[in-house]
Amino acid sequence: MTKFSPRLLTTLPLLIAVLANSLALNAKAQDAAGITSAQVNEAIARGVRYLKSQQLPDGAWEERALYAGGLTPLATLALLQAGCDPKDEAVAKALKYLRNFRPEATYTASLQTMVFCAAEPERDRLLIERNVKWLEDHQIRDGAQSGMWAIPTLGTPDHTDNSMTHMAMLALYEAERVGVAATDETWRLALDYWRREQNPDGSWGWGPDYPGTGSMTAAGIASVLAASERLEPSDARVQGDAISCCNPQTPNKSVDLGMSWLRRNFSVNRNPGVDYWHSYYMFALERVGRITAQRFIGDHDWYREGAEVIVGMQLPDGSWPSDLDEEHLDDLRVPTSFYLMFLAKGRRPLVLAHVKHEPVGDWRRHRGALLHLVASVEREWKLPLAHQVVDIGPATVEDLLQTPVLYISGHDAPQFTAEEKEKLRMYVDRGGFLFFDQSCLGGGFDAGVRELIAELFPNPDTKLRPLPPSHPIWRMERPVDPTTAPPVYGVEVSCRTAVVYVPDDLGCRWELLGRNRELSYPPAVRARVEQAETLGLNILAYATNREVGYKDPAVPTPDGGDDADDSRGTIRIANILHPGGCEGAPGALRNLLHLADHHLRIIIAVPQEVSLSSPTLFSNNFLMFHGRTAFTLTPAERKGLREFVERGGTVLADAICSSKEFTDSLRTELKEIFPESPLAPISADDPLFTTEYGGYDLAKVTRRRNSGGTRDAESGGVASIESEEPPQLEAVTIDGRHVIIFSPHDLSCSLEGAAPQCEGYTRQDAARISLNALLYAIH
Q1: How far apart are CA 738 and CA 498, in angstroms?
Q2: Which residues contact 623 (CB under 8 A, 6 or more apart)?
Q3: pLDDT, tens digit, for every residue of 680-730?
Q4: How far is CA 87 from CA 93, 119, 424, 559, 579, in A?
Q5: 279-312: pLDDT as tens digits
Q6: Helix/strand/coil (H, E, C) string of 48-67?
Q7: 692-724 burial, b for 16+ CB within 10 Å, e for fewer?
Q8: Nearest by Cα to 177 from 541, 513, 520, 532
Q9: d(CA 364, CA 618)
Q10: Nearest to 633 by CA among 309, 379, 451, 397
């Protein structure tokens, strides 16, 4: 007979508070292996607070004589890049000030233009047009310095340098992204200048004949890329009413030389070549990384290494120390703005990654395709986004899971090692999405992709099939007529389309997007380009559900305020994401929470799904780990599970429908993770099975078994046999505490609802066992 303990009502609130607060403290432990997203976000928030504290009542920041009007847009741009909304009080005041300030210097006009493009470009279009005209009018058009921009300083000759030219070109680039284009002549002069004045070793200095520096070399690379992409023939071209794809690629020698110099001289501790303007160097380096979509420069993870240095340099008031030359000593606002913009790169969510694969170079037949597609997604979703190039070989599964979509393109059959194929499968099993796109048509890509997909997903239920007209991909963002669109194939994995293949070279047509150039195409070409754009948008919207990570909610918001902590005294429970059929009983956790609320009056937060390798794992107190098929965890997932229980967490695991495959895999994994504490049966007199913690007397429970083939007379299904017996649970026990409680017999399917043909405990006893495990975890 069920017994319920009245003392639960008096002891439970205190126990919940102690447990929740204890795990919250443990979750703050820092990972000594490197910088964390929480540390970066905290540094950004502190930097934002500092800049806001320096703002004047009229919305400006106190200016310096030689750069009148330049500091205010620099600080405003930093706030915007750091995540502050245009409606944020400080940003709104700054925008009001800037809209009434007419720039008369290159830095001012450039930075102001970038601010208007980042904040409310539709509203400020006339001001953007005014500034673009000003920049074009003030470009040097002849002589040795043709193509450069200058600082007009009263009483002295115009002062030209590459930093001004870089800023002007960044402004023109951002203006074109919102539809305000400079002339070809402006871009041509600037591109010719950068190429003409590059040093023989591949570097650029502060001006002609200056020795190379890191900041100016990064500025030169970004400037040449922006101008080349604007002026020079792309890998896809329009020829009358036709589109020519996969044209011969002309190497960009200036960029290749510059990147070679950066790789040889790479540093995040100093500005290579000089001992000042480190903050400007990091700002320029970030632009190179963003435009090229490269995570690594040489062997250096430039963002992670740079972020570690910058976060470590931050001063107690949130500013960064001056790294400027004698002209700008002791001004903390400039380096703070530049460092904030570097750190903000890490806050841009990755929406997809372009996978490198053999044959060499075949994966990037259209080099600008993803840059243009992501720009379209940014406009559609009104979010700052990024993409990246990824090499599966050295990457871990956790690295791959940093992006929701892996894009694989090419003309020839893609070649992956057995280990790389395993990573792709594990990536999909953990929620990732594969997007295959055939380049150039012909070649071996089509046959190779079909063979690869068949190898990755051999189950008959996971075959590559055409998407039906009812599939959401045809209408996620904008409608596409399936009868006129290229064929789209998909693979269903765990009740979702996890793989898409388009054998029609979408990348070729994405290459033709960008800077509103599609508006000049013949109608037939424009229609095909827009159709490809829409398909790309729809596929990414389906794959991500428009949910891309932006900010860790556990740290302060960018405006300086802390997120409200409404979780004190609340138990947090999550379902573990893993490749062993974790989706097999989606209603189990929800029903357990309902029972806990109804019978025990326990406050439980909205349940989540969480990966064992995710930092958010440690915000939970109790995990459910159920499944139905064989699986293997990654090293990072094993480490996460071990750390979770060492921090005080508890896991309840069960085999859905008493699956032997899941049970065998779980035993193997737990033996490897906890070699010193093997799974062992829990004795019948264990407090877990008693009312000691305020739960139920579980001396006897009812377990359901299949009859071995006998058919039920009414349903026609296989009949089941029920018997009363002590519960059969096992546990990994550390220091006297059951940290992982495992039932080899089903709990989850029964929690979800009546499951007469599923071997395991009855619904009532599955609920009692699960609630007792929850109460045990609280105590």
Answers
A1: 37
A2: 573, 574, 575, 576, 610, 617, 644, 649, 650, 651, 652
A3: 999 999 999 999 888 899 999 999 887 554 444 443 344 568 889 999 999
A4: 9, 9, 42, 11, 43
A5: 999 999 998 988 888 888 888 989 989 999 999 9
A6: HHHHHHCECCCCCECCCHHH
A7: ebbbbebeebebbebeeeeeeeeeeeebbeeee
A8: 513
A9: 39
A10: 397
For tokens 């002609």, what's the residue?
Answer: 208
Contact in structure between 191 and 228 (CB atoms under 8 Å): yes
Strands 701-711 and 718-725: antiparallel
Identity at 460, one-letter amino acid code: P
The amino acid occupying position 620 is N
Structure tokens at 627: 């499944």
Where is 722: in which H helix or E strand?
strand 718-725
Q: What's the token pair of residue 285? A: 């380096």
Pairing mode, strands 159-160 and 150-151: antiparallel
For the chain, what percentages of helix, strand and coil (3-state, to nearest 5) are there?
Answer: 45, 15, 40
Helix axes 588-595, 763-778, angle to 10 degrees: 70
Residue 227 burial (CB < 10 Å; 0-12/13-18/19+)? buried
pLDDT in tens, 450-459: 999 999 999 8
- Residue 295's identity, in one-letter code, is R
Note whether 500 and 489 are within 8 A (CB). Answer: yes
The residue type of 480 is V
Least confident of 140-154, 565-579, 663-677, 689-703: 565-579
Given a cut of 50, whether residue 167 has pLDDT beyond it is yes
Strands 150-151 and 242-244, by their bridges, are unpaired
Of the candidates 161, 113, 114, the one whose C-alpha atom is nearest the C-alpha of residue 133 is 113
Average pLDDT over residues 264-290: 92
Q: What is the DSSP string of 96-163?
A: HHHHT----SHHHHHHHHHHHHHS-TTTTHHHHHHHHHHHHHTS--SSTTTT--EE--TTS--EE-HH
Closest CA to 439 of 247, 250, 245: 245
Closest CA relative to residue 626, chosen from 586, 595, 677: 586
- Taking only the tens place, the pLDDT of each residue in 402-420 is 889 999 999 999 999 999 9
Whether 635 has a pLDDT exceeding 80, the answer reads: yes
**DSSP helix/strand/coil, 318:** coil
pLDDT digits (tens, 9 = 90+) for 529-544: 999 999 999 999 988 8
Q: How far apart are CA 351 and CA 27, in angstroms?
A: 27
Beta carbons of 109 and 70 less than 8 angstroms apart? no
SS3 (DSSP) at 527: helix
CA pair distance 623, 621, nearest whole angstrom = 7
Name which of 44-53, 64-73, 563-572 the model is least confident about: 563-572
β-bridge pairing 489-492 and 497-502? antiparallel
Residue length of the chain? 779
What type of residue is 268?
V
**SS3 string of 278-314?**
HHHHHHHHHHHHHHHCCCEECCEEHHHHHHHHHHHHC
Residues facing residue 624 across a β-bridge: 575, 652
Encode pLDDT of 11-23 as tens digits: 333 333 333 333 3
Residue 20 corresponds to which tokens in the numbers above? Answer: 């929740």
Distance CA 703, CA 762 (A): 6
